[in-house]
Amino acid sequence: MDQRRWPRGVPAPLTPLVGRKHEVAEVARLVGEHRLVTLTGAGGVGKTRLAFEVAARVAAFFADGSHLVDLSAVSGPAGLTGAVAAALGVEDRPGAGLAGRLAAVLRPQRRLVVLDNCEHLRASCAALVAGLLSSCPELTILSTSRENLSLPGEVTWRVPSLRCPGQTRQMSPRDIEGFDAAALFLARARAARPGLEVQAGDVGPVAAICQRLDGIPLALELAAALAGAMGLDEIAERLSGRLELLAPPGGWPVRHQTLRASIEWSYQLLGEAERALFRRLSVFCGGWSLDSAEAVCCGDPVPEREVAPLLAALVSKSLVQAEWPGPGTRYRMLETIREFARELLASSAEIEHLAAAHATHFTQLAERTSAKLAGPDQVPWARRLDADLENLRAARTWCDADAVRAGTGLRMAAGLWEYWHIRGSMKDGTEWLTSALRKADQPLAARAAALNGLGVLLSLSGEIHRGGDYFAESIAAYEQWGDQRGLSHAWTHLGNSRAIRGDRAGSDEAFARGLALAEQAGSRWHEAFSWYLSGTAALIWGDAAKARARLEKSSRMFADLGDRRAVGYSLVVLGSSLVMAGDQKRALDPLREGMKIFEIVTERWGLLCAVAWLADATAAASDWRRTALLLGVADSLSERISARLLPYMQAAAEALSASASAHLGQAAESWYAQGRAIGRSDAIATALWPDRNGPPGPGASQRPVLTRREEQVAGLIAEGLTNRQIGERLFIGQRTVDSHVSHIFAKLGCTTRAQVAAIITARPAESAGPAE
Known about the structure:
Layout: H1 21-33, E1 36-40, H2 47-57, E2 66-70, H3 80-87, H4 98-106, E3 111-116, H5 122-135, E4 139-144, E5 155-158, H6 173-176, H7 180-192, H8 203-212, H9 217-224, H10 232-237, H11 242-245, H12 259-267, H13 272-281, E6 288-289, H14 290-297, H15 304-316, E7 321-323, E8 330-332, H16 335-346, H17 351-372, H18 378-387, H19 389-400, H20 406-423, H21 426-439, H22 444-460, H23 464-481, H24 484-500, H25 504-521, H26 524-540, H27 544-561, H28 564-580, H29 584-601, H30 604-620, H31 624-640, H32 647-664, H33 668-679, H34 684-688, H35 708-718, H36 723-730, H37 734-748, H38 753-762
Parallel strand pairs: 1-4, 1-5, 2-3, 3-4
Antiparallel strand pairs: 6-8, 7-8
Helix pairs in contact: 1-2, 4-5, 7-8, 7-9, 13-15, 13-16, 14-15, 14-17, 17-18, 17-19, 17-20, 19-20, 20-21, 20-22, 21-22, 22-23, 22-24, 23-24, 24-25, 24-26, 25-26, 26-27, 26-28, 27-28, 28-29, 28-30, 29-30, 30-31, 30-32, 31-32, 31-33, 33-38, 35-37, 35-38, 36-37
């Protein structure tokens, strides 16, 4: 910022602002359109620095100047008006009310007043601001506070943390400085250690520093000051005690002398009930919902009915973040704030009670969700578990710490096995279930379900015989417990296991028992499940007609019950039966529909099976390029979810791979590689059928022609390169790359990079158009 343009009444910062271009522009726009704008946010997030920059940006629009009033040193309401008057040069004359005199002086002026750090004087500031704005029509006020002033006409703008780098794989030192958090940290680190150069080995530590400090500017600046005495990797390693480590030698405002002091500043302004809820909320990991907060954190002095308004108050005070990732609101604390609150909880007498309440709540959530995953609401319930996965892991850790709690841990694990199946977390689920079963024999119902689930996950991981043994143990536990539905489920799984192992008679017996138990229990879902897996077994025996009849029946039953995921499974196996019967063309519709369902649910094992069977269909049509691409997708997916195709499917895939390689020669590896790139995404069906009009095929080459440069860019997109990396590879600017990518998406009708990859791999190279 040119110092000659800096407003006289606003202190010129000693260091340039890093990043925040969008934020400065947006707040400057708001200040131009509204007379009261309040910047809110957590301590250290950069509210004051942003206000300084905005004041400089809009200075030309305020003929009578811009002035900063720092209220942090004002200890009480009595000194507020005097502090504002003194900053604006208004004298306090005997016999005249200072507030009235201040208003009289400001009334004819077109001026911007920045009121900084209002949180500890919120009510008094609100009263003063309301009076000044009503009396001074040309006055604009920009305030900073951890909680807004709640005045009519006030525009509240929450200052976000700086953008942090995520995955550092393939990220260069130049790439990482494109993230504002890293750019700020490194700029300040170079001030502490002139000549500091970021090497490839520094990318990981810098990313870790930014992530652990939540992109909070104050925390990043404090950490950067350590660069004069420590290496970047040493700073990253020692940030587990971030509240104590980040203490500058001096020269900072009192409230910012350490990160702890900044958070303490906000905490001291809370009432008793707010403080209690604040420290109790630290029991959550990775965020929470309102119903979780009400279930876990209530209790004197926080009655359950008061949790919602108190939580809203903590959000307004910037100690809790509210987010809307989907239906419903999620809440979280910045990790630095959570660490402070966690220390308070650890020193209180209620930590054990809170930990127990937390584990009980999330065990109940797992059990409740297990049933929901087989019904019409399966997608939102699976996503709820996604959101609370860190809480579930924390609850597991608590259960594992004491043998007395092992039964709770077993209940939780039993409730989650279907979720792990859906998400393709075979390795994680197997380890969790094995550990829980080893530590607890009771409750018996949970043990039976956990044994059944472990059998499924082991089978999908390629351990068919071990899986069958666990199904047998599950049957014995369910018989002891007396649960007909559970027995039906386990017998049906055992029937499928026996079929895969080649035991046709044993398979038929198990399926018959499973179906009879389902009918006795009056469970339509378990009946449908028996028909589905017995149809899959018929496919193994080569009886396409019987498989088709059973799968069509199960598909109708699942559809009536609203279980779309199960419908997807029935459809993709039905498609495979049609391929076996030689009807490849008719097979594409159920395969495609099943894949679309799995994409919506994010059912990765189902996608893996569907892709493998689709490869059967394309090979039968002699479309070897498409077959190789699909086998690449299956290979990538299998690696991602630590799962293997069932033995008979794996044998077929290996035979197809050999045939595809023989037909395509050296070109085969390129198609496999493109498929593996698509398999790294969950949007596989979208990538394969971007136009939504049908399965990809020879017609793909008739898509709009790309220029030669667009073909180059599209090819690099398919390799997984970012726009910045493409620019570096082709020696062109990122804006030029952005423009090319926009044109490619428009021409091909794509919305994702995975779609572009799928289309480009199907296009013959000679289809490229003119150079530009």
